[in-house]
Design a protein that fits this description.
Elements lengths: L7 H4 L9 H15 L5 E6 L2 H18 L3 E6 L1 H10 L4 E2 L11 H4 L16 H12 L3 H18 L18 E2 L16 E2 L2
Parallel strand pairs: 1-2, 1-3
Antiparallel strand pairs: 4-5
């Protein structure tokens, strides 16, 4: 996604979040001590081979690493959407593909008013910075707002990105001007040409 002069991810790199398994185990133990037991949690996913594999993996690492009991709830896509929209889950696997080439296509997913915010995440600071991103005309101001949103997400962790799709293509060295893109016609041969 574009930033001011380069890609947003290069201009505003996300700081690597440290993994602290000891702290996670301590927090789980505190919950168990306060409640007398650990609550069972439900992981909602679409009934698909990929969804099943990811859910099984997460169930295993959270069970082995933290002692959490995770029940996997695999549903047809229609049932998944109904349960997700009504909040019938503790955790849910989800994906999003951009519909236009701007950081706001992802950023507005966590707006408190967005129907696709199925976890019902709400943070007034997030909503305020999102409005700046949505209405500011200056590119630098917009990307600074996007960086603030990124920092809030890193601090609050309303979601955990797990994968980013990508593709690799082979192209003859004499073929130039072919544009590959996530949005629109792909490949776009409008400016394609063969050079000797």
């Amino acid at each position: 996604l574009p930033g001011v002069e380069d890609k947003f991810a290069l201009e505003y790199p996300l700081l690597k979040q440290p993994v602290n398994l000891a702290l996670a185990r301590q927090l789980v133990a505190e919950v168990e001590q306060a409640n007398g037991e650990l609550p069972s949690m439900t992981l909602l996913t679409v009934a698909s081979p990929t969804g099943a594999k990811i859910a099984e993996y997460l169930q295993g690492i959270m069970g082995q690493g933290l002692g959490l009991s995770i029940k996997v709830d695999q549903q047809t896509f229609k049932q998944y959407l109904m349960k997700a929209e009504s909040g019938e889950f503790d955790m849910a696997l989800a994906s999003w593909y951009p519909d236009f080439n701007d950081v706001v296509t992802y950023a507005d997913l966590l707006a408190s008013w967005n129907a696709n915010n199925r976890g019902h995440y709400s943070n007034p600071d997030y909503d305020r910075w999102l409005k700046v991103l949505q209405v500011a005309g200056d590119k630098t101001e917009r990307m600074a707002a996007a960086a603030q949103l990124q920092a809030i997400i890193a601090a609050d962790v309303p979601l955990i990105p797990m994968a980013e799709t990508g593709s690799a293509y082979l192209q003859h060295g004499n073929l130039r001007g072919v544009v590959r893109q996530v949005l629109g016609a792909d490949p776009d041969y409008t400016a394609a040409r063969i050079v000797p």
